[in-house]
Amino acid sequence: MKYRTLVSAEQIEARLAEMGAEITADYAGQDLLLIAVLKGAFMTLADLARHIEVPLDMDFMAVSSYGDATKSSGVVRILKDLDTEISGRHVLIVEDIVDSGLTLSYLRRNLEVRGPASLEIATLLLKPGLQKVPLDVKYIGFEIPPDFVIGYGLDYYGQYRNLPYVAVLEEE
Ligand code: IMP
Questions:
Q1: Whole-number Å distance between alpha carbons of 167 and 54
Q2: Domain boundaries, position 57
């Protein structure tokens, strides 16, 4: 498969540093719980967390919404739930990408009923205009065109997650 860089490793690093500073200021004096959605968000979580300077804890969820296709199905299944109780906690969901928003919208509703003190969303990438549901995303790294992207945690049939940058897959 051919692909070309869309967001470079340097751009990602610089933007995550800015987002981390913003999050640090917003959550000053509070305990934070970062929740990442596996597998795609693992890299964003690891690199963003290094720029957050409030005491924090991390937990992970795994959901399936895509199967192996490149279009959102809207069907979300929890494959792995949180280990932590989130009642009364300040929760920040860390995502790799918001496309249709169906996954996050489902997750948000699912987590809200557990009674967190606050619940916000941070995403590295967002494809504007594609959201099928209204979604309040507080921290956005980059708005990108509606193409299918890989790298920096994002996969195509399980591959390319290790690329240190975000690239657009080009059909041959
Ligand atoms: P959504 O429900 O359409 O917002 O997308 C949910 C999940 O689909 C994301 O968390 C990604 O794991 C995956 N996804 C969406 N767009 C892309 C893409 O362009 N490349 C790779 N994975 C994607």
A1: 32
A2: 10-145
Would 105 be classed as within a structural domain? yes
CB of 103 shorter than 6 A to ligand 1: yes
Q: Does the CB atom of residue 163 touch ligand 1 within 6 A? A: no
Counting the structural domains of the chain, the total is: 1
Ligand 1 atom nearest the C-alpha of 96 is: 10
pTM over 0.85: yes
Query: What CATH number is associated with residue 58?
Result: 3.40.50.2020
Contact 21, 51 (CB under 8 A): yes
In a domain, 36, yes or no: yes
| Per-residue model confidence as pLDDT tens digits over 47-90 | 999 999 999 999 999 987 655 555 566 668 899 999 999 999 99
Q: What tokens appear for 166 in the block?
A: 């975000």
Name the closest-CA residue to atom 10, ligand 1: 97
Dihedral sign (CA 156, 128, 89, 12): positive
